[in-house]
Design a protein that fits this description.
heterodimer, A: alpha+beta, two-stranded antiparallel sheet, 2 helices, B: about 250 residues, alpha+beta, eight-stranded antiparallel beta sheet, two-stranded antiparallel ribbon
Chain lengths: ~150, ~250
């Protein structure tokens, strides 16, 4: 009985310590990275770095799952050196893995992404790139008629 | 009241709230656009810019407006790390990436000088939106769908935003693809981004930074995010849009 109680207590302490490390770890960066448990994974990926109980991350490079973070879908590649996150690479939409926007760990909030959705043009005016000298014939009809339906 | 005409090779529309509009204000605004066209059109061999490109006009003989546009272009080039550059690959000068927004902004100030407070002026997809519409609400602006089906004449939008006392400009390529020149790499920019919409304090600012940011490819939206007072909405060739963190305030 005493053994079970002691084991449970140790597990509780370790878990509390891990959570504490995660919280203090993520305060160092300007971005929010969803912990794996909360992620909506759509493809398998290397696991996020294990937290050691000596107070940091293990050095190396890790690719996270495509996580549903606060601002929108994102996949990050995290570089850890000296036990701290030293770089975060935001990997692009999965179709285009060769492109990435390199952003330092302290620079940027996540930018929200969404798939565009066509909708009814019940507006006063429209901003677009097609209505210039090459393509104004196409937009002639919509320009001369009132934009609002 | 609303009037639209084709000038400078593009549709130009002006709308003023009923109680403020006068027929002569429309004439004055369109007359100004005609003046800009005569001076800055690279398609007119009688224009001042064409004369400059033929080497017929030295810096000292240029008009005040031309000097102003050149000075603003230099400043924009500096602010954008060279991504905005009016000197093209063939050595010719083409300031149209700045002139459009600059002209709309000046035309808007013509209306303001007459005490008109609630209006919008749209030219070639760039808009200066001042005050409120007839329903006393911010002007409702749609962002055009950059993917238009062949033969489709009806305009589709992919986002609706509300603007008051703001300018908006969209840089982009046609569905068939217009190659964008990247002045930094001195080559064709990647064709991943099809549309970048920028909202700023006025249309002149929105236009010059939209032009520069579009030449940066995927990094354009990051540049706009870092620019205080500007928001953006960038669409890539897969139909995925990325917006700056404050863009949501306009939705």
């Amino acid at each position: 009985m005493k053994k079970i109680f002691l084991s449970s207590f140790l597990i509780f302490v370790f878990t509390a310590h891990v959570i504490h490390q995660r919280i203090t770890g993520s305060n160092e960066t300007a971005v929010y990275i969803a912990p794996p448990a909360a992620a909506t994974a759509t493809e398998p990926a290397a696991p996020l770095p294990a937290v050691t109980n000596s107070g940091g991350y293990r050095d190396g490079t890790y690719t996270g799952k495509i996580a549903d973070a606060y601002y929108g879908s994102v996949q990050v590649k995290v570089t850890v050196s000296d036990g701290k996150i030293s770089d975060i690479q935001f990997l692009d939409y999965p179709h285009d893995r060769n492109n990435s926007v390199r952003i330092s760990a302290y620079a940027m909030p996540l930018l929200k992404q969404e798939a565009i959705q066509t909708q009814k043009a019940d507006v006063d005016a429209i901003s677009g790139a097609t209505a210039t000298s090459g393509g104004f014939n196409e937009s002639l009809a919509s320009a001369l008629a009132p934009a609002k339906n | 009241m609303r009037q639209a005409r084709i000038m400078m090779g593009m549709p130009i529309a002006v709308e003023m709230r009923g109680n403020e509009s006068r027929l002569e204000f429309f004439d004055e605004v369109f007359s100004y656009f005609n003046y800009v066209d005569q001076k800055f059109s690279t398609y007119k061999n009688t224009s001042e810019i064409s004369a400059i490109n033929r080497g017929e006009l030295d810096a000292g003989s240029q008009s005040n407006d031309m000097k102003e546009v050149f000075a603003l272009s230099e400043e924009t080039k500096r602010l954008t790390g060279g991504y905005f550059d009016i000197t093209k690959l063939n050595g010719k000068i083409d300031p149209s990436g700045l002139v459009k927004g600059w002209a709309i902004f000046n035309a808007a100030n013509i209306l303001r000088s007459h005490g008109v407070k609630n209006f919008y002026i749209e030219a070639g997809g760039d808009i200066e939106a001042s005050g409120f519409n007839a329903e006393d609400k911010p002007w409702r602006i749609g962002i055009e769908n950059p993917f238009r089906k062949d033969g489709e004449t009806k305009t589709e939008i992919v986002k609706t935003i509300d603007l008051s006392d703001r300018g908006i400009a969209t840089s982009g390529t046609y569905k068939r693809g217009r190659h964008i020149y990247n002045p930094i790499s001195r080559s064709l920019a990647d064709d991943n981004i099809v549309s970048l919409t920028v909202v700023g304090p006025n249309v002149y600012e929105a236009d010059r930074f939209a032009t520069a940011a579009f030449a940066m490819g995927r990094d354009g939206i990051v540049f706009i995010e870092k620019l205080p007072g500007f928001e953006g909405y960038q669409i890539d060739k897969n139909g995925l849009a990325v917006m700056t963190s404050g863009f949501i305030n306009y939705i």
